[in-house]
Amino acid sequence: MNDKTALDFYFDFSSPYGYLMAEKIDALAAQYGRQVNWHPILLGIIFQATGSRPPADAVSSKGKYMLHDFARSARHMGIPYNPPSRFPLPTQNAARAYYWLHGQDCALARQFAHAAYRAFFVDDLDISAPETVLQIAAKIGVDRAKLEVALQDPAIKARLKDECEQALAAGVFGSPHVIIDGEAFFGADRLPQIEHWLASGGF
Amino acid sequence: MNDKTALDFYFDFSSPYGYLMAEKIDALAAQYGRQVNWHPILLGIIFQATGSRPPADAVSSKGKYMLHDFARSARHMGIPYNPPSRFPLPTQNAARAYYWLHGQDCALARQFAHAAYRAFFVDDLDISAPETVLQIAAKIGVDRAKLEVALQDPAIKARLKDECEQALAAGVFGSPHVIIDGEAFFGADRLPQIEHWLASGGF
Prior knowledge:
The structure is a homodimer of 203-residue chains. Chain A is an alpha+beta fold. Chain A has 10 helices and 4 strands; from the N terminus they run βααβαααααααββα. The radius of gyration of chain A is 16 Å and the shape is globular. At the A-B interface, helix 4 and helix 10 of A face helix 4 and helix 10 of B.
């Protein structure tokens, strides 16, 4: 940890723009000597509390545009992306796995988060299923039996609930949000502004 | 007109991100030998037809974020911006003035559009008032008496209605939209993707 405070990155594992941010934010922050704290949250809870609705659906003009923009934004950013056949998904199992791993090994938790995002947005796996989450974790060396128990651990469930409440308290209303020294940036398309902010210390 | 087709730029005069796009899109298109057709529309009609809501309000987390992001995005892009004291505004008078001018002098209509946007987002003038629209137009040499009549001309009202219907048919659901050879880009934050598209002919 250096003398500058870490960035906070809030995301839902079912958020395409969250995935795009996840592929870029650590390297960008590192260029400016900053670390990133990752916070998986559940957009269902966020939308319920803020009275918002999911931004993308398959029928409206805006929904169709967004499905197209997910893939185009990925190409623009040079990130692999395949539209998932089932979308969006509930992501509490992936988020619980993350927090359980984080309690033991931060780097392994980060590795799991990348693997879960890529499983969903590249390999089209149904990451809502506990079995899929266990398989993703097993591939990076996580003890499958222990994780299976952890996914039902009341302490882990409470941790995820706390994280959602803290996100709401911090003003988070969607995914991804990156908060830098109290300044909030919403959306993968705010990466140029995030870089501008990191480079200049505010503008 | 060169051999490449013009870009279509849809916007509401009350849209901050539309104003930011207006300050940049012509110069960017010109770098790639392209012209831009401007289409003021009324978001009220668009939102009613698409079942959307205005994105910004002053009380929710998202609304507060957006008011902050308008100003920060303007600073990021190097564009003057002062938060209007009355926002949003009905903009049918500004849009009608634009289409009436456009029927006579395209360049003058473009000049009026810039002046109207800057009057609202820099000088904090209430551009919903016919009197303000007349003053803005008079400053760039428009005959005030003729414009005053034109603002109530049924043909001009019908033109604006047609433009809103054509925007809906083209998939427009907010402001700004830029459509390049059938590819739609929503938001001032899509300027980097627009440049990418113009430079590469698609990606």
